[in-house]
Structures are given as C-alpha cells and as structure tokens.
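Have a close read of the entry that follows and walk me through the local backbone shapes. See right below:
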Amino acid sequence: MVDQVVVRVVELLRAKRRGAGLSARRTLSAPRSPAVLVPALTMLALALWGIDRGGMWRDEGVTFQVARRSLPEIWHLLHTVDAVHGVYYLAMHAVLAVHPDEVVLRLPSALAASVAAGLVGALGTHLARPRVGLWAGLLYAVTPMTGHYAQEGRSYALVAAGALAATLLLVRAVRTGTVRAWLWYAAVLGGTVLLHELAVLLLCAHAVTLLLARVAGDRWRGWGCAAAGVCVAALPLVLVSREQSAQLSWLRPPDWGDALTLLGDFTGPAPLVVAVELVLAALAVSGAAAWRARGGRSDRWGRPGRPTLVAVAAPLLVVPPATLLSISQVWPLYDARYVLFSLAGAPLLAAAGAERLAGAVRGFRPPGQVPHRAAGALLGAAVVGLAFWWQVPLLRADRLAAERPDDPAAVAAMAAGALRAGDAVLYVPSIGRRTELAYPDGFLGTRDLALRSGAAASGTLYGREVGPAELRRRMAPLTRVWVLTESYANRRSWHPPTPTERAKRDVLSRDFTVTAERRGYGVVLRLYTRTTPT
C-alpha cells in the first residue's frame, strides 16, 4: 500500500514538473495570456487614435520622399547621407509601394508599438507574474511618449519593439543556455541595431543584467559570442555613418535638464503620474536589494543565476540613456528618441513596486465573488486607467499637427495660396526645399531658381544647388521672386553657410525689395520685387 502511494506521489511530481516546464516554454516563446494581449490591443487602439493628423512633420516627410524613390536611388542616397536609417528606408519602400499615404507611413510604427506593449507584458509575466505583466504593459501603452512615436513615420517604435524582443530572448537564453537561444538573441538584436545603430547600447544594459543576476561562466561566454556577432554585423554601418556625422552637427552636449526631462517623459510626464511611478519603482528596487541582502535565496523575488524583473528593468531604464548622455558630453549624439527603447524599464519597475505593495497588504479582500487575484489585477489595471485619464489632455494635444516641430503641409497650403504658375522660388536655406519635396502640389508650376539637380538624382535629401555665379545669372532677368525662408535664417545671428546662400542674400538685398509677406508655421514667405534695372 505504501509502495503504491509513493509511486503515485512520484508520478504526480513528474507530471507537475512536465507541466511547469511546458508552461515556462510557452511563456518564453509566445505567451497568449491577457497580460500580453490586453496591453497590445490597448496600445494599438491608442496608436490608431488620431493617426491621420493631417500632415507630416519634416522627418516624416524625409521618410515619405526617400522611401518612394527607386532602390538604386535609395542606395545612392545612403552613400552620402542617412545611412543610419537605410534599413528602415528599404522596409518603408516596400510598405509605401502598396499605397503611398501618410497613414500607411505610420502604420508600421503603430503595429510595432503594439508588439512592444505585448512584449512588456510578456517580460512582466515571465519575470514576475501575469498581473505584473498586465500592469506594466498597460502602463507602457498609456505613456504619452510611447504614443507619440507610435504615430510617427520613423524607425524608433520599431527599434523599441526589437529591443524588447531581444531582452525577452536574453532571459530565455540565460535560462536555457542553448546555442539556438543565443543565436536567436543575436539575430534579433543585430537586426534592431541595423534599424538604428544606437540600439547597440542595449548590450551595455544586458551586460549589467547578467552581472546583477550572477550568471554562470558559460552564460557569459554565450552572451559574449552573441554580442561580438552583433558588433561585427553593425561595424559597416558604424563606419559609414561616422563619415556622415555632420548630420548631427545640430546636437549639443546635454545637461541635467535634459536628463530630468527624459525621466519625466519615461514616467509621465504629468507630475502626479511621475511621482507615483518613481515611488513604485523605488519599492521594486528596495525589494530587490533586500533579496540580495538575504543572500539571494530562491523566493518570490528571484533565484540565483537567473535574471529578476528588477535586474532586467533597472539596467534597461538607466544604462543606455546614462551611457549616451555621458558620451554626448564629448561627442554630442543625444536625443531622447534615440533611447526610446529604454522607456519600457519604467513601467516594469512600477508594476514590480505595485506587486510588492499589494503583497504587503495581506489582509485586503475585496467584496463580491471575484477571486482575490483577479480583483488585484483589475484594481491595478484601474489605477493605470486613472493615469491614462489624468493624461488624456496630453495625449489629445499630441495628436495635433501643430504639436510636432513643424508643419510642412500647412506651409505648402500657404504657398499654394500665394504662388502662381511660372513664379520663381528661392529656398533660404536650401533645406527649406523639404516642404516642396513632401508636398509638391503646393508648388505646382513654379520654378526652383537655385536647383541644379534634384534630390533623387543627386543622391541627397534636398537636391544640389548651382554655384553663386550661375545663381546671379538666373536672377538677373527676373522682376520678381518668391523666397521661402526658415525662421532661424531671419535672425541677425544667422550666417549663410555656403557661397550660394550668401549670393541669395546679397542679390536680394541689393536689387530687390519686399512687396508682400506671409508668416506662419516656422517660415516666412516673401515676394521680392526688383528695384534696379534688369
């Protein structure tokens, strides 16, 4: 009888172990719980809300006009400028071939943001429990900075999704230690780095994660080989983009104000939401510190040799931004969007802190028939919903074209109301031509006075202009010319950077006078009429 009982117990333990292994594999590969699906669907709904805001801003305009070039023309461009975005432009070439539209331009970012929210949920579920994943994924989805880039026709939302996928694969690789797991990790992270080279900073965060998890030597060797493969794959892109570093000349060394602004964007930016998230994150970190002080024994806070939620989320949140901010003191490279992928660390830590807080309130039992665990998950989701409601004005405002850095669609409409067929137009400086490239209908029938070769033919973003002598020859017979000037070029402190730009200024000031003017949207459109004989 005793023998039969023992055999039965062993069978049950084996069945439980097999079930736990299957559950872990499902969680690691493709979790299909509400903790993943609800944040993903929420993010998708928010990303599609107001996605057609009626105009592209200048960077989206670049994506739109470059991605519609032929593949040889895109390849030609990448040899001179924007190599860092080359893979993204090629991908968008295929997307816009289906239908060249502003909404279609933004759809990949919306879908990538949805995937990223689901991956945050998966990380929280795998590293803690499903309700932590649910809270973290929902908080990620309702953060205004996430929604901003979910509606932008640039690569940053895709990079964030790739970085989170690579982070989840890192956790799997550490737990399984198989060559296949490390290959998947290297492949996904390598592809993410090719989308934007500064995603390589994720390697620094992952190294700190392994250090905090105190993984075995074979895991370090596996990660080292994967990291080396990623760096080798990214090396050609780094070398080419280094030759194009003049593109970043507009960046300045960041200061503490930039760091605090980034922290607010990651955790708010509404002050009340920022405060609550920081308190919850502090609870999570203190809980992890207490676990390490207890000797790192296996309990609900972690297991030795395996990454905990805090060991994953804290380096993800801190290390890439801190590294880029530090490097940028010497070589300015910092812009908040370049480290968007680090934002996910904030909701993960906040959710972990909320879980610790919930665990401390042992005596809480909500009324009704809803089980305690389900009630706790719903209560946390309701708190996230409150954070969303509190920040709805910010989210609504962000869906207006006027909230972007500029509005080329509005500028083109202003130009269309003033220009006539046959009018000559000058752009001061030449980068102002981006409006005409994004919205050519506003300039139909006009003559670009300084243009020597178009953007696509010259392998540039905005075309090449003639020299000063040829420009003067072209302007000599004109009695009137329209000039579209960027607002900063009207300042006395602005100095024309090229001989052609100086020739524009000199001829206009000497031979012409302003007879009409329209202002708005960061530009000035002036009609110059000749005052000297032709």
User: Anything to note?
Assistant: Residues 1-31 have pLDDT under 50 and may be disordered. The two ends are 116 Å apart (CA to CA).
